[in-house]
# Entry
Amino acid sequence: MAVESLGRTLLYIGVILVLIGGFFILAAKVPWFGRLPGDIVYRRGGMTLVLPITTMLLVSLVLTLLLNIVWRR
# Structure
């Protein structure tokens, strides 16, 4: 039983990683993603600090809606 549970867990982790990787590939093709109003970019010398606050809120909202639709009981 324990080996079967471990196998399922590894499969779930693998599927989640594939989905996250696909999301990053698609996000790189969207020109406004990460450059929304409210995203903070601070450049000083050779350092750049990016705080994508609005983008994080948008991603959180979309994921919340999707997960509520998928796991609604």
Q: What stands out?
A: The radius of gyration is 17 Å. The longest strand covers residues 40-44. The CA atoms of residues 26 and 33 lie 10 Å apart. The chain has two helices and two strands.
